[in-house]
Structure formats: structure tokens, C-alpha cells
């Protein structure tokens, strides 16, 4: 091993002794015994039975037999990265949390993105909610902001969470379908639990099929409290705003990707970090004074409601940058344990009944998944500040506690570890006055289920509305029970009558007769039509063969790189493609190994190939698919012939090089827009 690398590894091990690089080392057992043979078990004769005394075989096989831990019931399919959070401005006026005090202070973070419904092996691009969980390793302990990419939730009380998940998971009689809500039990649950209406509108929207983890918002969902050093409380909701804007796939595209690349989202995140296109998210807060708790026509503690940004603006207070991939997916991504109850002084809870239930559920789940009470000692979960308490023993205990005292109060150890006052950083819960009868009931202020669902519908652009209707039609089209389909249509007439009528016609049930909500307000912040559009980090597939114009193509590829656009060279074979002047490019993908849906845009260059007929057919397939998914297409001078073979028509998002002196610039501008909904094609 290189001596400098050896020194680096030794230094790393001093700082993080649990992070081990095996490069250049000698194999040992888990007890540190050096191993002389790792190929053959210990036998009685070369053809005889394996001996029970073979401790190395038993250790190796036992470890393998127990390598799989139970996957998460929800959020099983996840991917994660490390990073840092940097504060823009002091939040001292609102909270005493130390990591929110000093501008430009950087706090290490670990973020796990996930789907909710699917198993560990399901596809990334399923229509689903995405988890967005952030662990801040602060000097006062770990703070976990455990949220989703949708600001509201399905239900209002955690008591119903098992019912929701039982309904949306594969149906128990045949264990199908995987990672999908398009089946009878989920929609039966929807029709009979109408508090779900607002969330279902989000799930049927483009928000449920994000283009990338890097291009979706994150939300804390619940209403929390911020407490300053004077004990003053304010309500807060947390937001993550992606610097690249909020962008989505279209449904047909998402389904194809699920077959072409099941790892589409995790691969996108991994590759972006590896090449230095670090994902960035700004942390925003909506802060509400305590005296304004009841000023709205919705209950701020209701998790099925959001605070419209036009009423309570989002204030951006810092930025998170994800800049390091995990070293080991199991040890870090799979073993990380998030818990909304992991808070620091200055952040507290409210009486949101869904949040209250989560405060129990997460801890209870981790005790099972991670084998006992010592999961906080796993490297990925270990705080960066010192840990001192009287907890002892249990499965997988890693701390070796000195001394004989393991209780509080005591005299033998001078009553240590001692508790801390609030001024010393001790956590003190906000003293909220609570009174009332013990009851199983729900506040009447939670009763309105359709006003914000209607607000969401009013806020959508025409393409987004069309996508929602198509999503409902697809999902209900998979439902076998006509009764359930009818109930759902009858329910969503309260959101929008025209929408429900169109869905009814599509799924062969009677048109609904109810009345829609009278809400006329809209919230532009809810529509992706108003998001940021930049070309950076977007991917272009360059469709090319021999005989291209090296000067034209070379200048375009250089310009794409300068603008932060990534590209892959795609041809009928791997290896070199040669221009008319002898210049060569290297094709890293073949038509058969990739697909149009895996790129944000196509640059159609074309050319010659050994099997020209097959080459032409592949070019047309790629162009037609990108065109019907509303993507921008750039056409080189040599590419016009291939465009003419396809179904693509001149118009929005089609940028042609012939006679265009600013082709590269205009093409990049089109790439940034990502979709051109004006095309007169069958909507997907």
C-alpha cells in the first residue's frame, strides 16, 4: 500500500475507529486471529465430513446467515448520503438550538431518501410518497427532521396508521401488487376514510413521481415548536427547498424506467455526488406566533393541512449540501435509526395526534429492527457529543462503562452523571397548559376534509390537472370492485365536479351528483409550473453514428459541459464513432443498454452504421419516446433525416441546428425547461 495512503488510513482510524479500509491488510477472524485458509472448511480427510471444531467456518457462516435484518415496514426502499448544513442567519430570536445560532456554522448531516410502500427490492420510480429524513449531528446531540416530499399526510391520528399501511401494502390473499396503490384495498380505505382526500390529491399529482431526489421538496409535515432562551414559544413548520427546483417524471416514463433501471433515483444521487454535482437544499421555516394559533379556517395541528405560503411565508435560513456517498449501504443506510423524538433544546413538540403517535412508534420499531436498545451506539447513529448516562447491558452493547455505579441518585460516584439545568443545556419541555376530559375523540376543528384538497386542485396548471385525472383513472382502472370505484368518484366530486365526472367516464361508473367545495382560493407555491428551471446536472443522450460533423458536434458538447449539462454518447455499439474528418468520440452506451427515458433530453446527431436499417429504427424509437414525453430535442445538421423518419413535429422544444447561429445556447435554454406541454400529442 502507498505510504501516504497508509498514513491517511491510520489517521482516519484514530478519528473514526469503526471505519475500516481492508486494502493491503491481512485477514483475521472477528476475534483478531489471523486466518491461513479462507477457501476450505476443516475436514476429517480431504473427502471427509466437516468438523464441528472449525470455528472459522462457523463464524463466517453464522455471520452470513444473520446478515439480513428485518426491512422497514414502510420506507424500506431507501438511499442516503452525508453532507453538511450551513446556517445563513442567526435564529436566536426564535430558538436556543445551538446549531441554529451562528451564521456560517456547519453541522454534519446524514440524509435518507425513500419510497413508502415498496419492499427493499422494489423500483425507485413507483407512484408514492418519498421519505426525506435528515439527521443533524449537533453539539447538543442528534436532531432528526423526519419528513416527506409532501407537506401533508394521509391521516390525522396515528391510531389509523396501521390501517393505512395494511390497506396500501400488497393484498394479503395473494401478496400483490408490489409498491403500488392501484388496487382495491387502498381505494376502499380512501373511500371510507375521507380525511385522506387532500393527501390523495398530492399522490395523484406529479409530486409522487419526482425526477430525482435532488429535485424534490422536503417537509417536516407536522407543526413543531421553537423555544428561545427566554422560554417564548412559536409554532413552526420546516421545509427543504431544492436549489435545482422541483421537477417530476411523467407517468408513462416512470413505468418504463421501472423496467429499464430499477435503481434510477439512487443511481442519480450516487453519480451526482461522485462527479461533484452536490445536491443542495435550502432549509426554510414557516413561523407562527403563539397568539395566532386559531387565526385560520383550519387547525394548525391537523397533519392533513398545510399552511399556504402566501399566508405564512417560508423564510430560508440555511443550506444543506450532500457531498459524500456512503461507504457501506448496510452499515449506514440500512442501520440508520431516525426518530422524530430526537430533538435538541429549543425545538419541541405540539399536540398533533399523528406526531404524538410517531414519538412512540419509531423507537418501538428500532428495538425490533436493530436487535435491542443499543442501536444508538452503531456508528451511523452515534452522536458527535459525549454520552454519559446509567444505561447498561442489552444486546450488542459496545460501550465499556467503568465504575460500579449505574443509578441516579448516588453518593459513591458523587451523584454523577449529574443532570443539567436549562442554562447548562439541559432539555426542558415547554410548559403548556393542558386540561380536559380523558376521551377517545377528535377535535371538531379537524372535520373539514375537502377545502385544502380543493385549494390544491385550484393551484394546478392545466397539464398538472390533466396528469391528476389520468392518475386517478389509471389507479381506479386497476380496482376490480365497481362499488369501490363508484365510492371514490362520489367522494372526489367534493374536490372538483368536472374532474370527478371525467374520472367516472374513464372507469365505467355513474357520474357523481354531489357538489364540489366552494373554495376559490389558490396557492401558486403548490404548482411545479412556478419552480426554478436550470440546466445544471441535467442529462443529454447524444444519438450518434459514424460520419458526423466533428466541428459542429464538438462545439455543442463543449457548450453543454460549460453550462453544467452532462451527456452520454449513445450508438449502435460501444467504443469509437468516427467523424467525417477522422475525429473520434467514445460511445459509452448502446441503444440496447440504455433508453430515452433515462435522459432529460436527446441530441440527435445520427450518422452511418454497419446495419443502417437497425440504426435508423433505434434512432426513431428514441426520438418518438422523448417527443411523447414532452422533452426537448436538439437536432444536429446531420440529424434532420432521422427526425423526418419519426413522429416528432417541429414546434416547442425542438431546436434545429440548420441555419441557427445560436443553436447551442437555444438548446440549453430548452433543456432547462425540461418539458414542453404545448405539444399537440396524446397526453401521458
Automatic annotation (TrEMBL):
Decomposes hydrogen peroxide into water and oxygen; serves to protect cells from the toxic effects of hydrogen peroxide. SUPFAM superfamilies: Class I glutamine amidotransferase-like, Heme-dependent catalase-like. Transmembrane segments: none annotated. InterPro entries: Catalase, Catalase_AS, Catalase_clade2, Catalase_clade2_helical, Catalase_core, Catalase_haem_BS, Catalase_immune_responsive, Catalase_large_C. PROSITE patterns: CATALASE_1, CATALASE_2, CATALASE_3. Residues 8-24 have a biased composition (Basic and acidic residues). Keywords: Heme, Hydrogen peroxide, Iron, Metal-binding, Oxidoreductase, Peroxidase. It is an enzyme of class 1 (oxidoreductase). This is Catalase. The keyword Aminoacyl-tRNA synthetase does not apply. Its cofactor is heme. Belongs to the catalase family. HPII subfamily. Its EC number is 1.11.1.6.
